[in-house]
Design a protein that fits this description.
With 340 residues, chain A is of the alpha/beta class. Chain A has helices at residues 48-56, 96-99, 106-118, 122-135, 141-144, 154-167, 184-201, 212-218, 236-241, 246-253, 336-339, and strands spanning 4-16, 21-33, 37-41, 63-72, 75-76, 89-92, 172-176, 204-209, 221-226, 229-235, 303-304, 313-314. Classes of the chains: A alpha/beta (340), B mainly alpha (474). The interface between A and B is large, with 46 and 33 residues. The structure holds iron/sulfur cluster.
């Protein structure tokens, strides 16, 4: 219990627009423990980023956390209590060009965080900033600390962003697609760095990405998100070995190298719908290759599946005993996209 | 501390920087008298305002001592007021004719002003090349783009000349407001009476009555002398006073009111725009409502009403009513600026570095000031420059209508008004010259605004990666 950093319970974040209320995050629950990496995977528009912003208390009007609780180290954050834990939860954004302010030097921006969280100023702050840049693997840090973001390459910029996050001395690091904007080789380096830092500092990490490959490499537990809901949650090995939800299977099938032969990669047709009301159906049904009648009229609840020890849950009527339809044989779904 | 001292020492041993510092010192010394005069005058006013301090005697000695310091561009160093004594000019600079002496002084004033400006640019270049840690910052591009913008440079030159006029107003006029207008019966002037062949003395007020510009039969046009040997670069006004002196001093009040009102409305607009961009939602909506309400009030009617209602109050006494005008302009004018910078502010508030700063607990005020304000200052400059032109027109317009700045404080619009009966006569200059000046200055401010806009607007930037990258956010 004491190792649980973050406990999110039944979180619902909605955006009130003139026409309707959009349920960007609709009742998700997950925990992050110290030293653990929890993945959040889904297509764009599935609500991953809003989940991250909710955890950080960065949801802007017209968005609002309508329901649920977010506890950090046992303290409830919902209701505007983030200020006490500012810096304990740090975030690394997707686009390093956008998360560094181009008019200030990199050093200036690290020092801004150092000043707030460690009370360092002047030369002491500069020294600490140089040390942080060294920690994230930036060579010649003493010189680079005075340079502007545009003088950094993409990978170096992301390292600098990580250095800013570390300057707050966080317990939990939220990574919102931290490698998506980078080249594959740089991507691997950044992942390695994050991994290293996590082990050194014993950080909890909430890792958000649309890339199943990255999930497989970095996370311990995975939550698959679709239209604001978690449709499947499982430890990473279990999920990759024994995916249950048709959406998860579709995502896995779209990883290069996982589908047999030289046929083209299957994709899931269609787009993530925008959820505006209490669900009365399976939100994935319009795209689901296995949808049956009940899928249109019953909202699937999360039920335990797979290995009983693995804490594996999914929200799909195929696994609900009330309905007659039974899950398809594994492997058949690999080309599910094409049958849709 | 030690780092800065050694930097200064380094700078002084470097030839180019030392030269730059020397030139700066020289430029300062030329005008040190005027500068000290200003500072001492201000301090003395401040001290005398304190209750219970009785040091008037000592202070006046200080004041007159400071006044004795020679200043290159003062009326005393290069005098143009003299008289012809039958064989040559008496009392003018080097015995030159009053016209030449005056032209020399005016030219020197402008040379000095441009030299000071050039010195500033030179200093910035040295700093940029030799002392700044970074080789390049995003602002350099803005400067470089502006340098290539001819229309913007034109605006800058006009605005700079206008500001110089306002700053050096007392030195530029061929005579002073006090001597020529306010207090003309308290001064005498000497002139050469060719009938009697001797130097005579006359009160300035009486001399003015003989120098009226009121149409074809009575006119002292631009660049002429009147009967008393006084030179009038722009001619005289309908009451015989010197138009050029009127206009240079009038530029001061236009500039002060303009700058004050624009600075006030810019700070209101910036504060509100940043607040509404940061908090969004309901805060933003309420600001929109407030600004719409203010905008819905007819500005001119409000101006006329308030100036009339407040005519008798103390606030209308401050700076001949100019302060009140500035306040009214600011409180009615901020809405336009707010509208213009709200968009850019909202755009900036979406940037991830704002969220990053929020996530590590930076205070909203610091985020607005440090991470958002730098991106809207450019827009403030653009719209500020353009609004300033508008304010100058409005001030002139009000004086033209007989409202606003109280007479006898010179104001351009009043000159236009005073001369309008003579536009079709030989005394056309009274209205036309200030009219042209107003147009030119307002155009200058607009051109400057255009130039700044083109220099900072990312749209005029070649399709850079920065804008493309911005689209990738989740
Ligand atoms: S509930 Fe029905 S539609 Fe939804 S994923 Fe399961 S089978 Fe597909």
């Amino acid at each position: 219990m004491s190792d649980t950093l973050l406990e999110v319970e039944n979180l619902r974040t909605v955006f009130h627009t003139e026409k309707e209320t959009i349920r960007a995050v609709d009742g998700v629950s997950f925990d992050v423990e110290r030293g653990e990496t929890v993945g959040l995977v889904g297509e764009s528009g599935s609500g991953k980023s809003v989940t991250a912003r909710s955890v950080l208390g960065l949801v802007d009007e017209p968005g609002v956390i309508e329901e649920g609780s977010i506890e950090f180290c046992g303290d409830e954050l919902v209701g505007g209590n983030w200020d006490e834990h500012r810096g304990d939860i740090a975030i690394v954004f997707q686009d390093p060009m956008n998360s560094l302010n181009p008019v200030y030097t990199v050093g200036n921006q690290i020092k801004e965080a150092l000043r707030i969280h460690q009370g360092l100023r002047g030369q002491a702050a500069t020294d600490a900033a140089i040390e942080l840049l060294e920690d994230v693997g930036i060579p010649d840090a003493a010189r680079r600390v005075t340079e502007y973001p545009h003088q950094f390459s993409g990978g170096m910029r992301q390292r600098a962003v990580i250095a800013i996050a570390l300057a707050c001395d966080p317990d939990l690091l939220v990574c919102d697609e931290p490698t998506t904007a980078l080249d594959v080789t740089i991507q691997a380096q950044i992942l390695e760095l994050l991994d290293e830092l996590q082990r050194e500092e014993d950080l909890g990490v909430l890792f958000i990405t649309h890339d199943m490959g990255v999930i497989e490499e970095t996370t311990d537990r995975v939550n698959v998100m679709y239209a604001g809901e978690f449709v499947e949650s499982a430890p990473v090995d279990e999920l990759f070995d024994d995916p249950k939800h048709p959406y998860t299977k579709g995502l896995l099938a779209s990883i290069p190298g996982r589908t047999a032969g030289d046929e083209r990669l299957p994709t899931i047709e269609g787009e993530v719908p925008t959820s505006t009301s209490e669900p009365s159906e399976c939100r994935f049904a319009p795209r689901c290759p296995h949808a049956f009648d009940a899928c249109e009229s019953v909202h699937p609840e999360r039920i335990a599946v797979g290995d009983p020890d693995a804490d594996h849950e999914t929200a799909c009527l195929l696994y609900d005993d009330e309905f007659e339809e039974s899950p398809p044989e594994d492997g058949v779904v690999a080309d599910g996209g094409e049958t849709a | 501390m030690s780092v800065t001292t050694s930097r200064v020492a380094d700078a002084l041993t470097d030839g180019r920087t030392a030269l730059w510092a020397l030139v700066g010192l020289l430029l300062f010394l030329l005008e040190a008298g005027a500068f000290l005069n200003f500072v001492v005058g201000l301090t003395i006013d401040g001290i005398l305002a304190l209750p219970g301090v009785d040091a008037a005697g000592f202070l006046t000695t200080v004041e007159s001592a400071v006044r004795e310091i020679p200043t290159l561009l003062s009326r005393e160093t290069i005098p143009n007021e003299g008289y012809y004594d039958g064989s040559g000019y008496e009392g003018t600079f080097l015995g030159l004719s009053p016209a030449i002496a005056w032209a020399l002084r005016a030219t020197l004033v402008y040379l000095y002003a441009f030299a000071a400006f050039g010195w500033g640019v030179w200093g910035y270049r040295i700093y940029r090349r030799n002392y700044r840690a970074a080789d390049w910052t995003p602002r350099d591009d803005v400067f470089d783009r502006f340098r290539g913008h001819k229309w913007g440079i034109f605006g800058l030159v006009i605005v700079f000349m206008f500001v110089t006029m306002a700053v050096f107003a007392p030195a530029l006029g061929p005579t002073t407001v006090d001597q020529n207008m306010r207090n003309s019966y308290g001064y005498e002037t000497k002139y050469w009476d060719s009938d009697s062949g001797s130097v005579e003395t006359i009160l300035v007020g009486d001399a003015n009555l003989d120098s009226l510009s009121q149409g074809n039969d009575q006119n002292i046009g631009p660049w002429t002398y009147d009967d008393y040997g006084r030179f009038h670069p722009f001619g005289t006004m309908q009451d015989g006073s010197d138009l050029f002196t009127f206009l240079v001093v009038g530029s001061r009040i236009s500039l002060v009111i303009g700058v004050l009102s624009v600075a006030l409305s810019a700070s209101i607009a910036a504060t509100l725009a940043l607040t509404s961009a940061y908090y969004k939602g309901r805060v933003d909506l309420s600001m929109v409502l407030i600004s719409d309400a203010v905008m819905a009030m007819p500005q001119l009617l409000l101006l006329i009403m308030l100036t009339t209602v407040l005519r008798e109050t103390w606030i209308n006494e401050v700076y001949s009513g100019g302060f009140l005008l500035a306040l009214i302009f600011a409180f009615t004018g901020w809405t336009y600026m707010w509208r213009s910078i709200r968009g850019p502010a909202l755009q900036i508030s979406e940037r991830e570095w704002i969220d990053a700063a929020r996530s590590f607990g930076q205070t909203p005020i610091t985020i607005m000031r440090k991470h958002m304000l730098p991106y809207v200052t450019g827009y403030l400059l653009i719209y500020g420059s353009m609004t300033l032109g508008g304010a100058i027109i409005s001030i002139a317009g009000l004086s033209y209508l007989g409202l606003g700045v109280a007479p006898p404080t010179p104001e351009w619009g009043r000159a236009v008004n005073l001369g309008q009966d003579y536009v079709r006569t030989g005394s056309w200059h009274i209205s036309l010259i200030p009219g042209i000046l107003i147009t030119l200055v307002v155009t200058g401010f607009n051109a400057l605004g255009d130039g700044i806009r083109d220099a900072i607007d990312p749209q005029s930037d070649s399709a850079g990666g920065e804008t493309a990258g911005a689209g990738g956010g989740a």
